[in-house]
Each structure stands twice: as C-alpha cells, then as structure tokens.
Amino acid sequence: MLTSDFDYDLPPDLIAQAPCAERDASRLLVLDRQTGALDDRRFAELPSLLPPGALLVLNDTRVLPARLRAVKPSGGQVEVLLVRVIAGDGAGDGTAEGPTWLCLTRSSKGLRAGGTVDLPYPSPHDGVRARVVSVGDEGAAELAFVPPPGRDPGPGWFLPWVHAVGETPLPPYIHREAGDLPDDRARYQTVYARHLGSVAAPTAGLHFTEALLEALRAAGFETAYLTLHVGPGTFRPVRADDVGEHRMDGEWVNVPSEVVQAIARARAAGRPVVAVGTTTVRALEGAWSEAVGLQPGGREVSLFIRPPYPFRVVDALVTNFHLPRSTLLMLVSALAGRERTLAAYRHAVAERYRFYSYGDAMLIR
Which residue ranges form the domains of the chain, and what is each CATH number? Predict the structure, then answer.
C-alpha cells in the first residue's frame, strides 16, 4: 500500500489547541466496523455504547515534563527532549556523573560529541550541566547529566529537578507553549496515569474521568491496565512512498500477568477486548506470540500495524482522530478497514469534530 492511500483533507482550524472544558464532554463518533454505520454521540455515553461485558484495557503510562531548555557555552539556545534513560537509574544516583538519557535536540547548529550544555537549576547561574556523549541523526544525542557544581543533591535528584524545570511536551501541531494554559500538566495526563516514562500522552485515555470509570465498572465492564511508554516516534512521519518500507521506533511495554489473565477470562466467556488507545493496541498485539499466545512481562515493541493485519487480541478500539498519512491512522484502518476509516474521517470533518491529541474520540466496535 502507498502512504498516499491514507491521506485526507483537514481544515487547520479543526486541530484542537486546548482540551475540552470537561474530559468526558468530548464528542464520540461510533463506527460499526462491520457495516460502516456512523453514530454521533458524547464520550460520557460510553457505558451505553460498548459491547456487553467488554473488557477495557488502558495504558497507565505517565507523561514526563520532558522538554528542557539548555544553553551552549557560546550562548546558543538548545531545546532538549528526554526520550529514555540508557545508563544509570534514570533518576540520578548522587554520583558525580548522573544518568545518561537518549534525547532529541533542536538548535541552530547541531551539538558535538564531547561538548556541554547548561540547564537551569532553577536559575541559569546554578544549573545542571549535560555532557554530549554522542550525536546521531535528526537531532538525536546521548546526554549525561551532572548535578549542580559543588553540590551533592543525593540519590534520586534528577527526576525532581525535571519536574521543577521541565515543560509538558505538547505535540508539534499544538501551536502554543505548554505554559500558556495553567492546567496543561494535568490535562495532558490521564486520570489513571501511574508509571512515569512517556514523552506523549496516550490521548484516547484523556477523555476518561474517575466518575466515568466508576460508571463503567458499575455497568459490569471490567478494566485492566498495562504500560506502554510513548516515544517521539509516535509523531514521526512516514516518509517512504511504500508503507512497507517504514520502520517503527521501539517503545517499552509491560503487560502484567493480571492483564493476560483478564483477557483469558474474557475470551473464555466470549466477551470482547476493547483497547483504549492505539498504544494499548501496539502493546497487546506486540506481546502476542504465535507459539504461546499473549506473553506477560516487559519488552521493547516496534510492531507496525497496517492493513492487512490479523488482530489476535483486540476486538474494538477507543481512539482519537489521527494525522493524515500517519502510522496511527494506518493502525485504525487495519481494524476498521481503510475505506470505512476514511469515510468516518470525512464525516468527522463535515461535522466539525475536533482532531488530534486534545480533540474528540472514536469508538470502533
């Protein structure tokens, strides 16, 4: 298939720049993947729209305020996005050389291995220094973070510092600074976020409230939680004309044994498995082995789901509206069918749904 097969026209004013006032007040487009029928609803109606007895599986990753501002010795500005820890415990162990992270960087001139950048702690005159261990393609760099000069901040200093000075890593299609809205840190986070490690939110989960989750459980729906730490590759465009030539970045996944057991119970009872978000789909399908079935535990997953794909675990999906030509739109098309998915997107544009991370949602059942 061609990347152009997954294109659609989207007026820029439909790209949501801020969240809905109430999480579950978002609109919900229901797509019947067998018939293509569409139904315009509200997210708060979800308990009445899910298949009876469904098991909902949600991604409980927590977004790190991973965008940092740095300065070169020359005075040049550098934007740093933390991606994942590659040496040390990730939090800082109080040693002279703190944790080393894989980062994405952006500056007028690229970084050089062996160089340094300075970051606030919290003032520019009393800051953390990062040594450039290595540089890669497209702004990738390994940075080793060092505690403030002359200080021993003790074990676990790094993540508290990140929380103090870091910014919410809003997606590039939100054309404002994270600090422009005081509640971005809370609203670009699910209410059930637990395990820190994502640089982007699992956005389908942003619509859930504690009251809605309780209503779902009261209506007889079971919930289970896994973890997929969303990486920056979720925004990486597909540059190849042939979809099959694209390669996905790896993302860390943990599927607890409790989730595997819950899915086995649902399967035995004939109850459908509903994934909340494309991240949950990637986690579950990526943890499937033809030899042994769904495998619990932690692993890196880089599964690229696009048509045609034989789903082994997931039966239905709650998701947001995704970018044209994106791997996420391809995943949705694999479940619902490309033509029906694009027809649903055309309907959503005509009805002026809000798109992308802070936008409205779809239920594909």
Answer: 3-63+184-364 (3.40.1780.10), 67-165 (2.40.10.240)
